[in-house]
Amino acid sequence: MKDKKFIALGFTTTIVASALFLSSSLFAKSDHTLSQQIGEKRLNALAKYTKVIQTVEQYYVDDQNISDIVDKSLEGLLSNLDAHSSFMNKKKYKDMKIQTEGEFGGLGITVGMRDGALTVIAPIEGTPADKAGMKSEDIILKINDKSTLNMTIDEAVAIMRGKPKTKINLTIVRKKEPKPLTIEIIRDIIKIDSVYTKKIEDSDILYIRVTSFDKKVTDDVRKALVKNRGKMKGLILDLRNNPGGLLNQAVGLTDLFVEEGIIVSQKGRLERENQVYNASKNGTFTDIPLVVLINGGSASASEIVSGALQDHKRAVLVGKKSFGKGSVQVILPIGQEEALRITVARYYLPNGRTIQAKGVVPDIEVFPGEVIVEENDFSIKESDLKKHLEGQLEKLDGKKKVDTKKSDDKKSKKLITKADILKDIQLKTAIDTIKVLTITNGFH
What we know:
The protein is α/β, with parallel strands linked by helices. It has three domains: about 35-80; about 85-190, Roll (Pdz3 Domain); about 195-365, 2-enoyl-CoA Hydratase, Chain A, domain 1, CATH 3.90.226. It has helices at about 1-60, 65-80, 90-100, 130, 155-160, 215-230, 245-255, 300-310, 385-395, 410, 420, 425-440, and strands spanning about 85-90, 105, 110-115, 115-125, 140-145, 145, 165-175, 180-185, 190, 195-200, 205-210, 235-240, 260-270, 275-280, 290-295, 315-320, 325-335, 340-350, 365, 415. Strands 19-16-15-12-11-10-20 form a seven-stranded mixed beta sheet, sandwiched between helices. Strand 11 (about 205-210), helix 6 and strand 12 form a beta-alpha-beta unit. The chain is globular.
């Protein structure tokens, strides 16, 4: 019996061993077959691509240079991936370098693709486009006489950029306007001050406007906070019409108000594109009530700052939903004169939500516009009675006293007056929210 058991056990072991060997062989063969199939698919796809190029070169009505055909095919490939990826030929690559490394004549607007239409993300404050009246969410139909239909962002930017003091006409569609508008803009050298600091009249509220995220934003805002620490009861951070900029500045600005936790993370297919940016306790301003203003022109870095502060419950967001640009692009050179701009990752806010195509929704939604004020010329209080009567006597005498004292504060660029506030209901709401936070949270 023992011999039989041994034989049976040995037989079974042999079968299992043989099965494992066979299975291993099958898996190895399967892996090889799969790899072979993938290789064949790649070869077939590349063969099809080559055949199409040869067919176009041979049969197209107009003579086509092979290099032009390849460039056009690459442009089509990249533009069909997403609105921000593109192929840059020699001229476009050179223009991109001029834009990022030197001065250039332009309009001062940031554009993006929304539902296939060339859309203004935001005009940059103080630039020709801003002065001409361009607005966030304007849809550009024509640049001069050229339609923007099927035009890439790079093509549009290349046309809009040009010599300073030259004219350009943009035909736009704007919400609530019955027909398209034509706006003439004079190109100029684009120089931007990214941070503006002001005080709200008759209050201890500091107002900081950030127009774009250049390399000095975090330092400039920190200096303003240090200078006014102990003098302010609240801070309004205005990121409306801010199209974004440098990621490290968005992280740095958020870090001024958050002590710990994730500020933003980015995730891509490649391991090296996966990054997590955390807050630190050093130099954090946690004792200031904070309200952030956003709108449809707030994009990219602006959305990172506002979304992170919202997730950390560090700020109240007021305004309209942001643009929704939450992807990461890098420039990958191809040789010395050409390059690809390609999306490699997406941004994610601290709670894991994505910005891309979704945007950041404010805590308090407020449409832009003026504050509605009911004026009543016949409403007189006891304290105003004497002045009122004096005024009426002046009218009867045909004389009017002239107050020679000028209000320097009201003319100062460092002060937001009551008149300014009445023109901006979103700002008025932010101020009221600061006052509520001061009372409910016990800030002094």
